[in-house]
Amino acid sequence: MLTFKNFNIADWFSFYRIAAAPFLLLILWLGNRELFTWLLLASYCTDMIDGFLARRLKITSARGSQLDSFGDQITFAVALIGLLVYEYEFVKTHSFYIMLVFVPYIFQMFIAFFKYRKATAFHTYLAKLSAIAQGIFILWLLFFGPIYWLFYVMIVLGLLETIEEIVLIFMYDNWVAGVKGIYWAIRDKRRLRKKIVIKKRIS
Q1: 0.90 exceeded by pTM
Q2: Is 91 exposed, middle or buried (0-12, 13-18, 19+ CB in 10 A)?
Q3: C-beta separation of 148 from 120 below 8 A
Q4: CA distance readout (Å), 122 to 13, 132, 185, 188
Q5: Contact 53, 9 (CB under 8 A)
Q6: pLDDT tens digits for 68-124?
Q7: Mean pLDDT of successive 10-residue segments in the chain (203 residues)?
């Protein structure tokens, strides 16, 4: 049975992003753009903090990775709602590029839930880079206005990251956390171990 003692400091930063989501939606409904953007910035900052603390304090875990991923997903969803409310014209004008990334992302989520019964938590280098570009662009858009070159960089990184996630899902039969990318997955003992076991059974 899980208790408060089972969660570490990195987990609590992930919990903050999850708990902040309904308050962000409330502020969004009240129409306070500036407060919404500052609190969204705080949520994005906790995303960087929890991963750093987990690695620095050596308290990484599968549960923590899954919690971190859920916090990322809910923060991203709230950010998208914020863009629809405050930057609808921008979203409408660039809807093709947004859907170009969003549709494969939904497909990736679908196959992950179909195969693992939960979302992935690979946390690849490409995913981290994509998240940084995404966070900077969304926050800058809400604070000051769009940076178009960054928007297209965000789209390309998002599409590449989603494709990589889909490939990794097919590479791993069982849910795993902490995969740096396809190059590292090829050498991952968690994959190789299962192949060795299958070969022994065949022989």
Answers
A1: no
A2: middle
A3: no
A4: 19, 16, 10, 12
A5: yes
A6: 888 899 999 999 999 999 999 999 999 999 999 999 999 999 999 999 999 998 999
A7: 57 87 96 97 87 68 78 93 97 96 95 94 93 96 96 97 97 92 92 55 51
Q: What is the C-alpha separation between 32 and 12, in angstroms, rounded?
A: 26
Q: How many residues does the chain have?
A: 203
Assigned CATH topology for domain 7-202: Four Helix Bundle (Hemerythrin (Met), subunit A) (1.20.120)
As given in the structure block, the two tokens for residue 164 are: 């990589």
> d(Cα 99, Cα 95) in Å, to the nearest integer?
6
Structure tokens of 103? 């549709």
What is the residue whose two structure tokens read 């590029």? 97
Which pair of structure tokens corresponds to residue 50?
Answer: 């929890």
Work out the number of other CB atoms within 10 angstroms of the CB of residue 50.
Answer: 25
What spatial distance separates the first Cα and last Cα of the chain, rounded to whole Å? Answer: 42
**Which two structure tokens, joined as six digits, stand for 162?**
């989603």
The Cα 83–Cα 88 span in angstroms is 6
Q: Which residue has the tokens 């990484």?
A: 60
Q: Where are the domains of the chain?
A: 7-202
